[in-house]
Every structure is written in C-alpha cells, then in structure tokens.
Write a structure and sequence with these properties.
Number of helices of chain B: 5
Radius of gyration of chain A: 18 Å
Strand order of the largest sheet of chain B: 1-2-3
CATH architecture of chain A: Roll
Largest sheet of chain A: 3 strands, mixed
Oligomer: heterodimer
Largest sheet of chain B: 3 strands, mixed
Order of helices and strands of chain A: HEHEEHHHEEH
CATH superfamily of chain B: CBS-domain
CATH topology of chain B: CBS-domain
CATH architecture of chain B: Roll
Order of helices and strands of chain B: HEHEEHHEEH
Shape of chain B: elongated
Largest interface: A-B, 38 and 36 residues
CATH topology of chain A: CBS-domain
CATH class of chain B: Alpha Beta
Strand order of the largest sheet of chain A: 1-2-3
Number of helices of chain A: 6
Number of strands of chain A: 5
CATH class of chain A: Alpha Beta
Radius of gyration of chain B: 18 Å
Chain lengths: 145, 144
C-alpha cells in the first residue's frame, strides 16, 4: 500500500490557516505565534490561492527591510508562484518535491479547490508510519513463505 | 543509515552567533548562508542555545519594529535537544516530529560536530529509498 497526501489529510483534517494579502507582517507573525505554525495560505476570498507566506519570509525579510518589516503587507512578502500537490500524490513524490525545491509547506489542491496544506513534519511522520508498515508486511510475508 | 551519513555529505561546520549579536545580524547570516538556524555560543565552544527562523518570526509578533536590535540571547531556545553521530535516522525523525523541531545539533562526546535539519533527513531517506528500489529491481532482473 502506497501512502498518499490524502492519508495525511485524513489524520490532520482538510483544514488550513489563511491570511489576507492586505494584512500586515506583524499581524501575520501574531497568527503564526498564536497557532504555533510556520506558514499560511494567502487568500482574499478564502478560495483562490493568491500565495503562500512562511516564517522564512519574515526571517530573511528582516535583513532586507529592517524596522519597516512589521508594517509591510503580506502581499509584498509572499511567494506568488506557489508549488502545490494533490491528494493523490504519494508521500515519496511530495518528499522529492520538498527536497528539490527546498520548501517545507505544500498547499493541497483537488481539482482546483484548496483542500489543505502538508508540512515537511507531516510528511516525515507519514513516512515513519509507512516505513513501519512496510517492515511489518515484509515480516508477515517472510513468515508465511 | 545514521546521522554520521548526513554529516559525511554536509560536513561538520556549524554556523555560530554570539548571544549579544542582534536579530538583524542573525537574519543577514541566515540569508547569506542559506540556512534556517544557528548555534548560539559566547565562546565559540559551549552551546548557550539555538536560534531559528521561527524565533525571528515569533519575535516579530512580540517586538515589532524593535526586533532588528533585539539581542539573539532574548530570542533563542535555551533548552537544546542534541543527537549523536551514531543515532539511526529513524530515531532522529521520531524526535523531530514528536518535539516539532527542525534542527538538531550533533554532539560527539563534548564536541559539537554538526547541525542537521529535517530537510537533510528527508533528503537522505529519499536517496536510501531510491537505492532500495534499485536493489529490488536488480534482484528481479537476476531472477529472470
């Protein structure tokens, strides 16, 4: 059995946290801290994916913008060309994508509709479960042979 | 596969900042070195703490426009979780997911010998999985 993004969403739910492009970086930072998360989907209407913004954008933005950073808008700092995955993608495909593009958050779209977000932590966790299952089923196979 | 396998590729150099350096200094270092975390050390040996992108982001919520001048010491995590070069990758993955941390300094005895990230761990597992798949393919070919 190959585990997919859908399996992750089944556990964590089809939910994602979002911020409006017009909110300030200070407000965004407060959301991150309150929710104890590392990134948010940027959307105006709660449906269309305008971008994604993460703690990395703040950490690196500080060097460039200094004390102006907290009053800047989310739209000025977000990543607009967003990489996405689909519920049918395997954990391995998502691992590959995150590794090669050096990203830690992937929004999940199902036929154009935003249905969730997976993090590198979710993927590692799912992979651990999958590796454990594979070992168990191999053992069962070996015993029955 | 163990932590030492990651260090073999990545090397054992660790980016360090002093506790009295500012958040702005740290941000510049992270950007220049394309990394997400640094070790905080006053003397360049003892680990006083660890500081990451997350600490800067959460720090902005608290300090707003004063953040650039806030010293690293007041933003860092002081209770640091370490791993050792002999730790299996699966154990390290477990620690990272359970404690929700993305960076683990590596200690060999008293010496700091590296800093690994969840991205490094994922990359190694991926190459290991590809290797396993190749071995299985070879096996199938030999059987025919």
């Amino acid at each position: 059995m190959v585990m997919t993004v859908a399996n992750i969403l089944k556990v964590k739910g089809r939910i994602y946290k979002s911020v409006k492009p017009t909110e300030t970086i200070r407000e965004f930072a407060k959301h991150l801290k309150d929710e104890r998360i590392g990134a948010m989907i940027v959307t105006t209407d709660g449906k269309a994916l305008d971008g994604i913004i993460s703690e990395r954008d703040i950490a690196l933005g500080l060097a460039e913008h200094g004390d102006r950073l907290p009053n800047m808008k989310v739209s000025q700092l977000m990543t607009k060309r967003v990489e996405v995955c689909s519920p049918q993608d395997s954990i391995e495909e998502v691992m590959d994508m995150m590794t090669h593009r050096r990203i830690r958050h992937l929004p999940v779209q199902d036929e154009g509709e935003l249905v969730g977000i997976v993090t590198i932590g979710d993927v590692v966790k799912a992979h651990l479960v999958e590796a454990h299952l594979t070992t168990t089923s191999r053992l069962t196979l070996a015993r029955s042979a | 596969m163990i932590v030492a396998d990651i260090l073999k590729n990545k090397g054992s150099s660790v980016t360090m900042v002093r506790p009295d350096e500012t958040a702005l200094d740290l941000s510049e270092r992270l950007r220049a070195e394309r990394i997400g975390a640094a070790i905080v050390s006053a003397d360049g040996h003892a680990v006083d703490g660890i500081i990451s992108e997350r600490d800067l982001a959460y720090g902005l919520a608290a300090h707003a426009s004063r953040l650039p001048t806030v010293p690293v010491a007041s933003l860092m995590t002081k209770v640091v979780v370490f791993c050792s070069p002999d730790d299996p990758i699966n154990d390290v993955m477990g620690v990272m997911t359970q404690k929700r941390i993305r960076h683990l300094p590596v200690k060999d005895g008293d010496d700091l010998v590296g800093l690994i990230s969840i991205g490094d761990v994922l990359k190694l597992r991926l190459s290991e999985m590809k290797l396993e798949a190749d071995v299985l393919l070879d096996y199938v070919r030999v059987q025919r």
